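Tokens for chain A. Residues wanted.
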């Protein structure tokens, strides 16, 4: 695929997101564009681009990874650390999609990298992103999870519970031993639990209350994902007033929703 065009069928995407709480977005990046992102991504993983306190292990507490670094590497705000990312097409395409999906007032709230290292077998627990967030009067938000590699059941593709976004934010608790991940009750046996394998360059968008998780990576290759989150500009301003900047100044991640809502 060698195109700079957004995937067609946005109206169908809006309908699916409203119905299921997530929607697959095919062909978001071309082969050449993928290589550009992978090159920068690997500079982060190797430490050539120093992420400092914005880098952490979401899988802390599991067995040490075979790579000698993290089991699940999370780097917050990569676009602040490498401005070249802003000039590549994903930020512009993501913003256009977000405005179609949740409204014309959407802006970038934050971005992040999440990599599952080979043969680490460290799952990301069931959770809702809203479990991390402060409560806002306008809850519209969408995360666009872009796969830079083939995401399979064995490498740690996303799983979602269809329709869970229509329910409350579940009680959450810290997961593991200080890795920053959170978890709530949920399992693959839950009605509506659906795996979403992706080809390189495809993405899946989900909203803040959609229940999701991913298995550990048991393959010999990385599972690199680039995530961009969007919400209304007025709500971003309100978050910042409340001290929530998603690791821009302080990468401490806490459970903000410990009781059902």
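Reply:
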């Amino acid at each position: 695929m060698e195109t700079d065009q957004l995937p067609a069928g946005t109206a169908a995407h809006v309908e699916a997101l409203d119905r299921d709480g997530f929607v697959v977005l095919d062909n978001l990046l071309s082969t050449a564009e993928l290589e550009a992102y992978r090159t920068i991504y690997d500079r982060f993983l190797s430490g050539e681009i120093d992420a400092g306190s914005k880098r952490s292990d979401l899988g802390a507490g599991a067995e040490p990874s075979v790579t000698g670094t993290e089991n699940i590497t999370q780097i917050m705000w990569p676009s602040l650390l490498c401005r070249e990312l802003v000039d590549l097409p994903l930020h512009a395409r993501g913003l256009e999609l977000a405005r179609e999906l949740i409204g014309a007032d959407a802006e970038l709230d934050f971005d992040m990298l999440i990599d599952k290292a080979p043969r680490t077998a460290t799952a990301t627990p069931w959770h809702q992103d809203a479990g991390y967030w402060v409560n806002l009067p306008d809850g519209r938000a969408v995360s666009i999870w872009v796969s830079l590699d083939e995401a399979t059941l064995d490498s740690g593709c996303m799983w979602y519970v269809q329709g869970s976004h229509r329910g409350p934010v579940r009680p959450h608790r810290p997961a593991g031993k200080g890795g920053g991940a959170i978890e709530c009750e949920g399992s693959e046996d839950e009605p509506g639990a659906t795996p979403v394998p992706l080809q390189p360059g495809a993405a899946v968008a989900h909203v803040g209350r959609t229940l999701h998780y991913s298995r550990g990576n048991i393959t010999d290759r990385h599972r690199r994902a680039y995530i961009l989150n969007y919400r209304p500009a007025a709500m971003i301003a309100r978050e910042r007033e409340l001290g929530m900047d998603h690791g821009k100044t302080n990468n401490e991640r806490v459970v903000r929703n410990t009781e059902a809502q």
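The two ends are 44 Å apart (CA to CA). The longest strand covers residues 106-116.
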